[in-house]
Design goal:
This is ATP-grasp domain protein. There is one protein chain. With 376 residues, the protein is of the alpha+beta class. The protein has 11 helices and 19 strands. The protein has 3 domains: 89 residues, 3-Layer(aba) Sandwich (Rossmann fold); 53 residues, Dna Ligase, domain 1; 196 residues, 2-Layer Sandwich (D-amino Acid Aminotransferase, Chain A, domain 1). The N and C termini lie far apart (43 Å).
């Protein structure tokens, strides 16, 4: 296999890993950022129009015909898609992805196998007056935290109960979110890295629970327990390839939050900190091969800067961010003449260091130098 096609809303991180692994890479995606065109051999950008999923998949299927590739990777937003190709599809089974991505199904599964997790209910089924507050209200499926709401009392929950479709209510637990990245194959799994999630930092976004990046490795306690739990559930579910498991570390103990049966946003920080290539491991897993675990060589971090207000990207702004990309301190660089709407991501910054504190300080400095200057 020499050539892969990656389809998703944002494919840049997957394409970059595949390119470093020595593959020819084609991409069909929505954002079409400037640096993706430097990475991939050819890119097709699709509009995120208000069409149904079947129509969107049909249109993308037509675009796929222009490429000559050996294997398909369905990236963010398309892991459950069926494009009808007879070539290798390097993803988990779409029906399994649908189940595992359902937070209510996952809660029932974790209860069955005895793994500690936040109590979870369907929003439509709850009686607000019977709950202990605060609670979290989240989409039943999907990631990113952008739509998560902290609800303080039953009156608030009553107001929103009938306004959201396919949402869950979850026990609110204060703590730090961390994740384990794994490679799985043939009912076995190997942890390849741990990461701490960045969220709730006002210098990155005004959205309280939006996923805003990661620092790898995680140096909090319970890391070994996290790895063992993650490997056990991924093996039990018979997942394959690159997968992630999210945990909440709190004074009440360790809670399993989500299982992500796909490439994670931590892909690049895991690769940098542990000096490995996730895409090559992902491909090998489909032939039954698992990697050997390695130790982190440094700390690596990524920070996603969101627009505090609508931002117009002119040529100067795009060029300055693209210079950062060339210096390996930025990615997901928007083209000039692009309007970034409020609360949407603008760009991603990268930093590395010998400690977590040094890495986080570097991320904050480069973000503040950019957003507090005359760029935004």
């Amino acid at each position: 296999m020499k050539t892969v096609l990656v389809v998703g809303y944002n494919t840049r991180h997957i394409c970059a890993s595949a390119k470093k692994a020595g593959f020819n890479v084609f991409s069909i995606e929505h954002f079409g950022d400037r640096d993706l065109f430097e990475i991939a051999d050819e890119v097709v950008v699709f509009e995120d129009s208000q069409v149904d999923n079947d129509t969107r998949e049909s249109d993308i299927g037509e675009s796929m015909k222009r490429f000559d590739y050996d294997a398909l990777v369905c990236g963010p937003g398309f892991e459950q898609s069926n494009f009808g190709t007879e070539l290798s599809v390097l993803n988990n089974d779409k029906k399994l992805v649908e189940k595992v991505s359902d937070k209510f199904w996952l809660s029932e599964y974790l209860t069955e196998i005895g793994v500690k997790h936040p109590s979870t209910f369907l929003l439509e089924d709850v009686v607000p007056s019977t709950l202990k507050y605060p609670v979290m209200v989240k989409p039943r499926s999907g990631a990113g935290g952008v739509k998560n709401l902290l609800v303080l009392n039953s009156e608030q929950l009553e107001e929103i109960k009938w306004s959201f479709n396919d949402f869950i209510v979850q026990e609110y637990i204060e703590g730090v979110t961390a994740s384990v990245s794994l490679i799985a194959a043939c009912g076995e799994a190997c942890s390849i890295g741990t990461s701490e999630e960045i969220s709730g930092f006002p210098w990155l976004t005004n959205i309280p629970y939006a996923y805003s990046g990661s620092i790898t490795p995680s140096n909090y306690k319970h890391v070994d327990v996290m790895k063992e739990l993650a490997e056990n559930v991924v093996c039990d579910l018979m997942l394959v390839g690159s997968n992630g498991v999210d945990f909440l570390l709190s004074d009440k103990g360790l809670f399993l939050l989500e299982i992500n049966p796909r490439f994670q946003g931590t892909l690049e920080t895991v690769e940098h900190a542990y000096k490995l290539n996730v895409f090559s491991m992902h491909v090998a897993a489909f032939s039954g091969e698992l990697p050997q675990p390695v130790s982190a060589k440094c700390f690596a971090g990524r920070a996603i800067l969101f627009a505090k207000n609508d931002v117009w990207i002119d040529q100067r702004m795009s060029d300055l961010l693209f210079d950062c990309y060339k210096k390996e301190t930025a990615s997901d660089v928007p083209w000039h003449n692009t309007l970034i709407l409020k609360d949407k991501p603008i760009v991603t910054f990268f930093a590395a260091g010998t400690t977590r504190a040094e890495t986080l300080t570097k991320l904050r400095n480069i973000t503040n130098e950019t957003s507090n200057g005359d760029l935004f």
